[in-house]
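Let's sit down with a protein and look at its sequence and fold side by side. Please make up or recall a protein chain and show it to me in full. Label the sequence line and the structure token line clearly, so we can match residues to local backbone shapes. Go ahead whenever you are ready, and we will take it from there.
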Amino acid sequence: MHNREGKYLGLPLCIMGTYLRLCIHTYYTSIFCVTILVVFKLFLNLFLTLVNGLVATYYTQEVVTCD
């Protein structure tokens, strides 16, 4: 069973993963990074809410992949 949200989760999670790696390499901005991640999490929640709304009305077969 494929859940529709899984297709859209790939991209934000990929961005977050890349960002976390960036943060680990730049220790001096750790407080800034944490703040950005909290903000990013809020935007991610909003994004998923919007996506769920769009998926409910218009479903596409696109799959987001991250290499």
